[in-house]
Every structure is written in C-alpha cells, then in structure tokens.
Amino acid sequence: MTNISRFRYIFILLAAVFATVLFADENPATTLEPFPDARFDKICERMSQGNVDLLWVGDSIVNGFVNGPGAKIFHDRYDQRNSMSMAIGGMRTGHVLWEFDNAPVDRINPKMAVVMIGTNNVGHGKSTPAQTAEGIVAIVDRLRDLYPEIKILLLEVFPRDPNPGDDLRRQVEEINSLIRPVYGKGKVKNVKLYSINDLFLTEEGVLTREMMKDYLHPTELGYDIWGKAVEPLIIEGLGEKPMEAVGEQGGDDWMARFNEKNDLLAANKRDYQILMLGDSITHYWEKSAFDEQESLTPLWKRYYEDYGAINLGIAGDQTQNLVWRIEHYDFSKVHPRLAILMIGVNNIPTGHPFEATAYATRYIVKTIQEKCPGIKVIVLKCLPYLYMGRIEYQMMVDDYNALLPYYFRDIEDVELIDIGDMYRGGDGLVNTDFFPDRVHPNRDGYLLWGERLKSKVSEKLK
Model pTM? Predict the structure, then answer.
C-alpha cells in the first residue's frame, strides 16, 4: 500500500468514526428523507394553486382515503371544502418533514390540518416507537410554525395487526401512549389529539378484515367510519355553521313561553338542579297531548320537579330553535348539575341533513357546558316516530340515532342514552299503547321514561 493510499484509507476510517460519533443519537424519524417522484410533483402543483382550507398529512392510509377505497366518501365530504392531501403511500415522518421543506408551502394558508402518520416508521423497521413519537411532534411543530393560526386534528396512529398482543399493534399503541401526555386534554393550543381506534375494533380488541382487509389499510367501511367520526371536529376546525340559530318558532306563543322560562331562570327561586331541554316531547310533561294532565303532573313532580327541574321544552322546536334559546337564556344565576336533552325529531320531515342536525345538538351541549360549568348532560336519542303514519320517517329517525354517537364521543360528562326500545311494538314500530298519535308519549309513556332514568338521574345528581 502506497503512502497516499494509506493516508486515504486512514482518512476514510477516521471520517467514518467521526460520523458514527456525530450522528449516533440522530433520530431517523426527525431526519429529512427525500421523496422526489411524480406524486410529489403533483402535490406541489396543487399547492401552488393555493386556496387550501383543509390539509391532509399522512401516508398510504390517508392516501387511500383520497385515491383508494375511501375516495368517494372523501370527495363527497371534502371537495367542496378546499381540501388537499400531502399523503403518499410509504411515507414516514421524515418524508413529511422533507415535504414541508421542499413543497411550496408558502402558497397556502390552511385553516385546519388532519394528521395521521407514523405506522410506517415502525412497520418498515426504521424507528422505534419513541423515535416515531418525536417525529410526529416535529411534524406538528412544523405545521404550527408555518401556519400559526392553524387548527390541527392529530389522530392517534390506527391499530394494525389482528390482535392486541401482536408486535406491530403493541408498537403502534406505544407511539400513541407517548404522544398523549404531549397533546392530550388540549395541552397545546389549537392541537386536538383524537383517537377513533376503538371504532375499528371488536369489543375484544380484534381488528377484522371487514375494517382493514390487510390489517393496516381501512376498507370502504373503515373510511366511512373515519369520515363520520371526525366530521364534527372538521366543522369546528373550519369554523363552519351548518345550522344557524333561529328564534320565535311558532310566533307569539313561542316567545311568551321562552320569556316565562327565562324569567324563572333569572330569578332561580327554586335553585334549579336539572334543565329539561327539548321540543313537544319534553314540553308535554307539563302539557299533556291526551287530556291526562291531572295524572301526569304527579309523575313530573315525582321524577323531576322534586329534584329541582325546570322544563325548557317548547312544542314544535327544531334544533336550530333550541340553539337560539340556549344562546339567549339567562343562566347567570343558576347552577344546575344535570341537563337532559332530546331534540331533532322535528328536523326529520323538513329534510334537514342528519349531520347538520347532529352537529347542532352537539353545539347545544357544548354551549350548556360553557354557560353552566361542571354540569353533566344526558342526551336522549330520538324516540320512535311515525308521523303521519309514514314508516320512512321511523327509518330516518333510526339512521339519525345511529349517527349521534359520533358527535359526543370526545366531550366529557356527556352520556348518550337510548330509551326508545321501551316504546316499540313487536314489528319494531311505535307501540300506540304508549304513543297514541305515534309521535307523543301518553301518561304511561312518560311513566316508563321516568322509571327508566330514575336511577341515572340520582346518580348524576350525587
């Protein structure tokens, strides 16, 4: 070996040792990884056009929502909301960080980003769960640096592998457990960490092929669940108002009842403990639809009035009317511990979109909680409903009720309860023994309601 060759060899060896020492602690999940191909070029082209309100960040799981099994769901939901995706199949956190440094990110100013990334870091064996969690934090930090006012919906990494004890399932759960202390319970402004993972699993925690055919990528059903589960959060992140508040439903009588109840709230002579909120079904605890008030009043007193309840139901109300009332009631003197809410059935025959009605109900709950700190809320699903004898209305109510759980799963101190099973006959439709007009309960119907919720009410008031 010549002196020059020997020198070169020693130089290369020393350089290698130096690099090993220098980069020994470098995290591959926070190290920029180039991803230059035609798919990235298309992302840059779309971004250059601007006009992006909703930005999607992720890997093949997000890309499958845009271009795969979830495409129809995605485009129906988000095309009219100025949405774009930065997701490419195979991406890891380092790829996303590289995207931010190489895409024309200054051409957009999104209101909201949905982030779901990290599974490929462990799936490809490139990072540990702890390193991956750092990569996710780096992505969130980068988004906040680029767009200081952006709202970020950070989804916990989706489950993978069939069983809870499987290796990749455990690693994914470890990632999630590491980002919860960072972003859980609103610890970082404008960042909401949200898990929908339980919606993909059986009660035993098993991931089925029905949800993810390869135990990694959602099927169309999985994407449909994803879309429903994040919809209320996207509405809030984008600042949308799917249903405006509307007052004075029904004219002078409506406003007279509103004023009467508002005066009672303002005086609070009873020290109200329970707010009963709704439409005629709530209202008619105090005003029987079937000339039974003499026998119904003792039930109202037994189950609610004696506990300090005030009836804030108004016949004919739809969700937008109750939105208006909740915004205008004077709650400054009351300190209720429980609200019982049932609303929405009157929106059904008027053709309001189910998601707008459900979101308005969510808004009502959140507004009550803001105005009455510490209050617990029971949301009752709509009761069986055969208005004008039309079976399709009952089917619509059932579909609406199935949607409601997605709108309250992230709100604390809210319990969604279905008492409608008590009122169905053998054919699954309204039992006229309890709903003579197939819309409103009679005295026996209210008795079942009172008994069904009695222990629950007592529990919430403790």
Answer: 0.91
Q: What are residue 313's DSSP bridge partners?
A: 278
Residue 344 tokens, joined: 């929405």
Contacts of 101 (CB under 8 A, 6+ apart): 32
SS3 category, 213: coil
Query: In whole angstroms, what is the distance from residue 393 CA to residue 400 CA?
Result: 10
CB 451 within 8 A of CB 402: no
pLDDT at 427: 86
Q: In what order do the strands lie in the sheet with 54-58?
A: 83-85, 54-58, 112-116, 151-155, 191-194
Query: What DSSP line would sit under 31-96, residue for residue?
Result: S-----SHHHHHHHHHHHT---SEEEEESHHHHHHHHSTTHHHHHHHHGGGTEEE---TT--HHHH
Please give the pLDDT value at position 251: 66
Is residue 87 exposed (0-12), middle (13-18) or buried (19+ Cβ within 10 Å)?
A: buried
Answer yes or no: are the C-beta atoms of 353 and 394 closer than 8 Å: no
pLDDT at 250: 60
> Smallest Cα–Cα separation from 361: which of 319, 406, 317?
319
Predicted pLDDT of residue 242: 85
Q: Check the CA dihedral 83-84-88-92 and report its sign.
A: negative
**What ranges make up the beta strands (E) of 78-198?**
83-85, 112-116, 151-155, 191-194
Q: What is the mean pLDDT of each run of 10 residues along the chain (462 residues)?
A: 40 34 70 93 97 98 98 97 97 98 98 98 97 98 98 98 97 98 96 98 98 98 98 97 74 89 96 97 95 96 96 95 96 97 94 94 97 98 91 94 97 97 90 95 97 97 91
Backbone angles phi, psi at 435, to 5 degrees: -130, 80
pLDDT the model gives residue 461: 95
User: What is the Cα–Cα distance from 441 to 439, expressed in whole angstroms?
Assistant: 7
- For 458, residues 6+ apart whose C-beta sits below 8 A from its C-beta are none
Helices (H), 315-442: 319-328, 354-371, 391-403
CA separation for the pair 220, 1 (Å, rounded):
65
The CA distance from 23 to 75, in Å, is: 43
